[in-house]
Design a protein that fits this description.
six-stranded antiparallel β-sheet, single chain, 4 domains, de novo design (two linked rop proteins)
Length: 742
């Protein structure tokens, strides 16, 4: 049954977004590179899709990849802060020359704008389809067209072709200027067709020499004059192509590029709304520019909230004043104007109790102001409720704003919880999504319509199913706005969306690196956090697919799971076991966990899954506990001793002991006496291995059984399959058939 969490996102209302080309207008961010920004020395180029996930562990530097993008062209905020943004190792160097350091370089596909930019730049449209924009620490920009190239060889070839054509044409003409023109063309061919490289200046001189040969008042009917004018034009065009300036040097073109850049909207959990807001602080913080990251993010969300619902925080504060506030304000003015005299008068008025005597007109004004505030708040709550319902189809949340003196509160109710509750007492997921909804809609409107959303750890507090819904929701949102988000959750990196995943990790030098190669090493052998999240996403998808319609058998742990999966594979390959349904072995660790797993994995029609327990001390304890505590019908135990006939047997005793011993000897190469030389098939293998290790002075690794199981699996699935005799296979088949019928 699908879990219904408070935070669920409607994915049916939005079509899945295409990966590329969703927008008809505006630039599309294709890749970016961060350098010399906080923990990032050089991230390397990171290619983006419509939706891109940056995956990495905490402290890997994911945020330090989003912030530079935001500061490239922020929708709001995004100021360069030297003490935070300059890498500490280069702080003094960058501080002395901020204009020499760029911290972000982004490349864009210019799309439908390519033709207009090409015309402004005077270059072919193909060379205007990509534009690179870099931001410098002094706030300036560097713009380039990566595909722009001066084709000097082609320009030189065009000039020579024009001269050859002129020479051939002159040979056919009879004109007073023919001889001199032919001589000049011959000289120019000799100059430009030699071994030395031809420059734009050479073509300029050639063009000028042709122009100088044309008389000031040439005959109107001269064919040579017409030919020379055509040659002058051709040489001029070749010269222009060879000395064409970089398009980025065109100020008008630079402005056009910057005007067409998408805006970047950055959002993190710092901006989540609180349910109770102290209005004097709101008014003060909205006017401050020196707030820290957390306070600034919260002030930004509050500013967006008030703008979105059409309220003014100072007005709401002013409308809520009562008589005491008005009196105190009047006294403050009187004291400021009259000094000690005003103070004395104020104290005298209070002593006579005159402050308790507001006139009727004052009371009427106060009542009208508070009623006005109440209407404004009711209207604002209705607007937020309606707009939020248009965007989020799961749930029918109703919002109400309340102001009590200097305090402003947000109340929430819905059909499942009709009682109003303060926003901060609802789920963190609802707080996040409401806050993100406000910031996105307010900052992505109008001039910010073409924007890229940068989401830092979105939905990390959500239920896993809600995280999957959020990942799917991004597909629909990405149809209109590119999205780049950071995460360390496998539920936000679905297996069918791995194409959007990029790894972020700490390299061997301690700097942040990013890569689209999900198999790339992550800097050290011990830190594999990003890769683990990706593998976990794959494992979840495989596990879900495997469990659907499969017969589940509970075993004690990973060692037992490895051996039983191997046995099943070998028996099926030998044609001895043909299950009606696939059989999956799920590891548990304790009796209590086994009970929970049995209830969760059990199907109504088939009942709980069987439990396979060995005859080790742990297995006997689990069997006894299950017998005492398991509810009737929830524990179907098959004991391994009934199959092996050995007291104290473990899963290893289902395999030939000499085969296991030979593989263990390959791990432990130190002893004089090999274990394979003295294996007794009538005794449990694990007990023999422990006794052998103790006698030989060997300290086995804590996970030696798991290591041995993996070695045996590799061996038997490879060349060692022939070592299994028919008797062993028959015993395995009997066990599997017993589990299948349990």
């Amino acid at each position: 049954m699908r879990h219904v969490s408070e935070f669920q996102i409607d994915t049916d209302q939005r079509a899945a977004a295409p990966v590329q080309g969703a927008r008809a207008e505006g630039f599309t961010l294709t890749r970016f590179r961060v350098s010399n920004f906080r923990s990032v020395i050089d991230s390397g180029w990171l290619t983006l899709d419509r939706v891109t996930a940056l995956i990495g562990v905490n402290e890997s530097g994911k945020t330090n990849l989003l912030l530079p993008l935001w500061k490239l062209n922020p929708a709001s905020g995004g100021e360069i802060v030297p003490i935070s943004d300059y890498p500490k190792a280069l702080f003094a160097t960058i501080r002395n020359a901020p204009g020499q350091f760029q911290f972000i370089t982004a490349e864009f596909d210019t799309g439908a704008q390519a033709d207009a930019l090409a015309e402004m730049a005077g270059i072919p449209a193909a060379q205007a389809r990509r534009v690179s924009v870099a931001r410098l620490y002094d706030g300036g920009y560097r713009i380039a067209f990566p595909d722009f190239a001066r084709d000097g060889a082609a320009a030189h070839a065009r000039a020579l072709a024009a001269l050859v054509a002129a020479r051939d044409a002159l040979a056919e003409l009879d004109d007073p200027l023919q001889a001199e023109a032919a001589k000049l063309v011959s000289v120019l061919l000799g100059d430009l067709d030699g071994p030395d490289p031809v420059t734009g200046n050479d073509l300029r001189l050639a063009r000028n020499r042709v122009a100088a040969l044309i008389p000031a008042d040439p005959p109107a009917t001269s064919h040579v004059i017409a030919l020379l004018r055509g040659l002058q034009k051709s040489l001029g065009q070749a010269m222009a192509a060879m000395i064409q300036p970089d398009p980025a040097s065109n100020d008008s073109l630079r402005r056009a590029v910057l005007e067409r850049l998408p805006r970047f909207v950055y959002y993190s959990n710092y901006g989540n709304l609180d349910s109770e807001i102290y209005l004097p602080h709101v008014v003060e913080n909205m006017a401050r520019a020196d707030l820290g990251a957390k306070e600034g993010a919260k002030a930004r969300t509050l500013r967006v909230l008030f703008d979105f619902v059409g309220l003014q925080a100072p007005e709401i504060l002013q409308l809520g004043r009562d008589f005491r506030d008005i009196r105190d304000e009047a006294e403050a003015r009187m004291i400021a104007e009259q000094g000690r005299t005003g103070l004395a008068r104020s104290l005298w008025m209070r002593a006579r109790g005159q402050e308790h005597q507001p006139d009727a007109a004052t009371l009427a004004r106060i009542a009208e102001a508070k009623r006005t505030r109440s209407i404004l708040l009711q209207s604002a709550g209705t607007k937020l409720t309606e707009r939020f319902a248009e965007w989020w189809k799961q749930g029918d949340y109703r919002f109400r704003f309340e102001a009590d003196g200097n305090h402003f509160r947000i109340w929430v109710a819905d059909s499942r919880r009709p009682q109003e509750v303060e926003l901060e007492h609802r789920s963190t997921g609802l707080q996040w999504f409401l806050s993100f909804f406000l910031v996105f809609l307010q900052e992505a409107k109008g001039a910010h319509e073409n924007c890229v959303l940068l989401l830092d750890e979105p939905g990390h507090s959500l239920h896993p199913l809600a995280q999957r819904d959020l990942s799917a929701f991004f597909d629909g949102l990405g149809a209109e706005n590119q999205i780049v988000y950071t995460t360390h959750s496998p539920f936000l990196v679905d297996a069918d969306r791995l194409a959007r995943a990029r790894k972020v990790f700490v390299d061997a030098d301690g700097s942040t690196r990013a890569s689209g190669d999900l198999l790339q090493a992550e800097g050290t052998d011990t830190q594999r956090g990003a890769g683990f999240a990706v593998r976990a996403a794959l494992n979840l998808a495989v596990a879900e697919a495997s469990l659907q319609g499969a017969r589940t058998v509970l075993v004690q742990g990973a060692v037992e799971q490895c051996y039983m999966s191997l046995i099943k594979t070998l028996c099926i390959a030998a044609g001895q076991f043909r299950p009606r349904h696939d059989m999956v072995f799920a590891p548990a660790c304790t009796a209590s966990i086994m009970q929970v797993m049995a209830r969760m994995l059990g199907e109504d029609d088939a009942g709980p899954p069987p439990l396979l327990l060995d005859d080790s001390a742990q297995g006997r304890d689990m069997a006894a506990l299950l017998h005492r505590t398991a509810p009737a019908g929830t524990a179907r135990v098959l004991k391994l001793q009934a199959v092996t006939g050995l007291t104290g047997s473990t899963l290893e005793d289902l395999l030939p002991g000499e085969l296991l011993a030979a593989q263990l000897d390959r791990v432990e190469r130190r002893p004089e006496r090999l274990m394979a030389d003295g294996v007794d098939p009538a005794r449990p293998f694990v007990a023999q291995a422990l006794a052998w290790a103790e006698a030989e002075g060997i300290t086995l690794a804590q996970d030696w059984r798991a290591q041995l199981a993996r070695r045996v699996r590799r061996y038997l699935l490879g060349d060692g399959r022939s070592r299994i005799d028919a008797e062993t296979t028959a015993r395995w088949t009997a066990l599997l058939q017993g589990l299948a019928s349990e």
